[in-house]
Amino acid sequence: MAVIAEAAGWGSGWVFALSAAGVIPLAGLIGEATESLAAHTGPKIGGLINASLGNAAELIITLFAIKRGLLDLVKASITGSIIGNLLFVLGLSIVAGGLKNGIQKFDRRHTVNYTILLGIALVGLVTPSLFSHSTASGLDLKVEVLSLSVAGVMIILYILGILFSLKAPVAEGIGTPAEPVKKETHHWSVSKSILVLGLATGGVVWMSELLVGSVEAVVAGTGMSEFFLGIILVPIIGNIAEHLVAVKVAFKNQMELSMEIAVSSSLQIALFVAPVLVFISLIMGNPLTLVFNPFELAALGAAVVICYTVSADGESNWLEGAALLAVYLIFGLAFFIFPV
Prior knowledge:
The chain is mainly alpha-helical.
């Protein structure tokens, strides 16, 4: 329907809405295919596969945005993914699990460790923003060099985390969930998984091109800011399959795995996706710097602190989840009413 809307000239609003809707099941197929591949490789390699391809749909969308020069949309989607995972996904998971199972307990050490690492990763995202206000000469070039340098350090840290996860006991690595989430159905064969992964990725590429191509017209026609699209809508569209998995396992009283999915996904965005986009954007001729506005930085810091506070006691209840959702709603309203 998105392709028909584009060909028939239905308007940018229809193209945007239908291509966004088209990404959702395709992202789900990518998740299903990677999970099936993970089932054939064992928990450690499987967790690495899930972590590496878990944000594929959103990464593809942001690459098309970089190609079109929509750098504000890209940076907003980076912060939006982290905030969305820590507040919206985790909050929804805690509410669902709490209403079904009451107070849920989990190993606080893993979640707290992830949150602390995320706080450290955010230092890398914040540093170029702070020094972008310097009065030094040649500031733009220096900020770009600093962003590239910070991105390189963060990628090295991510690689070290992968090496640690392959040698350490399962569920202690960076960005790798404890194990692939088990489904009730039988897993696909390796060949079928690879075929579905390739076709679904191709579909996401097609839908992403239509989606990003209609953004500017949607912004002009609706008055909705590019920043709001990036910080709220793009992360939800690109990661909804992973979000549903986190809620599902929390509902099944696997709160530790649910929290690990949400927090480790945010960690992967900060340590891998954002730095990779910095280097790719340079190759594509639209350099992306790790300079975020004060509102994004404040929201990121608040999300990390709140997540740490919720996970520090090793248990959760539905009221804590509702509080996380309330904070996310407050941020969403602020970003909508006051476009940056």
